[in-house]
Specification:
The chain has a single domain, classed as TIM Barrel, CATH 3.20.20.60. Helix content is 42%, strand content 17%. The protein has eleven helices and ten strands. Strands 3-10-9-8-7-6-5-4 form an eight-stranded parallel sheet.
């Protein structure tokens, strides 16, 4: 079992498989988006999740849309045991209904979609997030928000929002409103990945006592040029986040067993072993 953190009543491995590849969102290129979509049939998504179980992960993160919920239902029916942390699906008309549907399908936690959080921040309406957080709390799940802006986390902390966790992006993808590639249905080429952003976000992550899930630690494929570069990115992340934090990493299984590779790296950095080593 990989090392875990505790949030509420749940033990969560410090490495969580992310869902962007399942939904065709690479944040890298239109070509990689297409490759994700072509490869990740329901069968291959389920195969990746069962490989996570074999390698010691116990939690996945993904969008809470109809496509993913159908796949998770199949995975559960086939004996799948990973815990699920779900993102709200911003393209749906009624997000309150979306939250209730996600909770009914067994998610242990739900968080407000980071791009939508940021849009509301730039519009001066970020307090509207709290209305949906209340609906999440009513469902008895862990409650979180996602963001690519350190200011959002600091604002939520200052105003004592009722939250259990944050999803915190290492990169400030833009300084103005933008659309999620999955919601927009196409690659968004103007996202920026400046390593200087990482230090500012990790400082905020360390300052909040709440658990954080750091994401895009590999800069959406930009730090995957070699095994050494991947190792370095993981080492940077775990050196700077708190012991009570975890990372979320999307994994593309077509050519390399990234699940096994990433699990071994995290076990080496944080201690522990993976089932694949026995």
């Amino acid at each position: 079992m990989l090392p875990t953190i505790r949030i509420g009543d749940h033990d969560i491995t410090r490495l969580v498989i992310g869902g962007n590849p399942f939904s065709g969102g690479s944040h890298y290129s239109s070509e990689l988006d297409r490759a994700f979509i072509d490869y990740y049939s329901n069968e291959n998504m389920k195969r990746a999740l069962f490989e996570c179980e074999r390698c010691g992960l116990n939690t996945m993160q993904s969008r809470g849309d109809r496509h993913i919920m159908r796949m998770i239902n199949e995975y559960r029916n086939e004996g799948g045991k990973l815990q699920w942390i779900a993102q709200t699906a911003s393209e749906l008309r009624d997000l309150r209904v979306n939250v209730r549907q996600i909770a009914a399908r067994g998610a242990i936690g739900i968080y407000h979609h980071g791009t939508r959080t940021d849009q509301l921040w730039f519009d001066g309406r970020v307090d509207e997030v709290c209305d949906l957080l209340k609906v999440m709390r009513e469902q008895g799940v862990l409650v979180g928000i996602g963001t690519h802006l350190f200011e959002v986390i600091e604002y939520a902390e200052e105003h004592e929002w009722d939250l259990d966790f944050y999803l915190a992006c290492f990169y400030r993808l833009s300084d103005k409103k933008r659309e999620s590639p999955v919601v927009a249905g196409e690659h968004q080429p103007k996202e920026r990945y400046d390593d200087a952003d990482r230090g500012r976000m990790v400082r905020t992550i360390r300052q909040t006592p709440k658990p954080c899930f750091a994401f895009k630690i590999l800069a959406a494929n930009r730090k995957c040029g070699s095994p050494e570069q991947v190792q370095e990115a993981f080492e940077f992340a775990f050196a700077d986040i708190k012991p009570t934090d975890a990372v979320i990493v999307g994994m593309y299984q077509e050519h390399i067993n990234q699940v096994e590779m990433n699990a071994r790296i995290v076990a080496e950095i944080c201690g522990g072993t993976t089932e694949a080593e026995h």
